[in-house]
Amino acid sequence: MVIILPTLPLLVNPIQNFLIMIGNNSENLQVCSICGVSIAEDGQVNFSDGKPGTRARLYARVCQYTEKPECINRETELIGELTAQDRYETGEDLTIPTLSTSQATN
Ligand SMILES: [Zn+2]
User: Fold this and answer.
1) CB–CB of 46/37 below 8 Å?
2) Cα–Cα–Cα angle for 28, 50, 17, nearest 5°?
3) What is the mean pLDDT of residues 79-105?
4) What residue ranges do the domains of the chain occupy?
5) What is the largest CA-CA distance in the chain?
6) Distance (Å, rounded) from C-alpha 24 to C-alpha 91?
7) Ligand 1 mean position, distance from CA 93 (Å)
8) Span 3-22, pLDDT tens digits
9) CB-based contacts of 5: which residues, under 8 Å, 6+ apart?
10) Residue 54 pLDDT > 80, yes or no?
11) What is the distance in A from the centroid of ligand 1 to the CA of 35?
12) d(Cα 28, Cα 82) in Å, to the nearest integer?
């Protein structure tokens, strides 16, 4: 009985092809040099850590604070409507100063 073991290149090639496919996809990514995140053609935002999000999430958490024209995520048409979930993950202890101003005078 003869067992033919695949050689190493045969094992590696499918993995390399897969990585090349991923690499080709990344050509459509826009990278914001200010925020350090990449935005895919379909609008998916890849944060440096955590799960991928949306332009709205990126804007709510990062871009609205940068106030730099170089930031690529400043087009409100693309960003869309911000929701409470866009601002922070559940459980994070963050305060947003703008939310408390409306009920200051009484
Ligand atoms: Zn940005």
Assistant:
1) yes
2) 45
3) 65
4) 9-79
5) 90
6) 37
7) 23
8) 776 665 555 566 566 655 55
9) none
10) yes
11) 4
12) 24
